[in-house]
Amino acid sequence: xxxxxxxxxxxxxxxxxxxxxxxxxxxxxxxxxxxxxxxxxxxxxxxxxxxxxxxxxxxxxxxxxxxxxxxxxxxxxxxxxxxxxxxxxxxxxxxxxxxxxxxxxxxxxxxxxxxxxxxxxxxxxxxxxxxxxxxxxxxxxxxxxxxxxxxxxxxxxxxxxxxxxxxxxxxxxxxxxxxxxxxxxxxxxxxxxxxxxxxxxxxxxxxxxxxxxxxxxxxxxxxxxxxxxxxxxxxxxxxxxxxxxxxxxxxxxxxxxxxx
Length: 260
Hints:
The chain has 260 residues and is an all-alpha fold. The protein has helices at residues 3-53, 61-81, 85-103, 116-138, 144-175, 179-192, 202-259.
């Protein structure tokens, strides 16, 4: 075999190897791109879930606006990897939704925490959101200050949701006229916040429940005083009737004896 033939064979083999390496690199790049697209789509679904399913009372306006902006950012990054008119349209609709919410002065209506199963579901949502924040920080999608701030807020909501549940039961009992039960439930609502009673977020909630508790205790004390007063008046009236009846019997007996 001549040197020329050997050189040609080496070039051919080298070309095949280079071609194979290029194909492999392209395939790796394609798979990496698909993984990123999948990651962004999963995060978009997660953020949309937080926007739609987290009760308004546990989603302050600034947090909701932040979730909107995060979702828009994810759409922008997804568009760079996968240019698509559908993605652009969804991104623009979301931006309009965010702008409308930002301009709105109307307070979103709180969702009643009236069921223990619902509370468990919302708590799971809190835990999912915390894990999402941590993973997003690890991937350098979120600032550490934002992660710390909302993680602390979620810790507060974890206790507040229990207090809200007992507050709902207290209100229900009060409207049904069960003041003793209402007092018991408000005390339990305050007790649920005891582990975080010194935090700035918990203090106004505790004050609110204490004020409601005092109002009901005052109403109950007044109610009991009126009942005692009515009972005393009824007793005096009954005693007065007994005295009159005794006098009547005595007079009747005396007249009968006199006639006799």
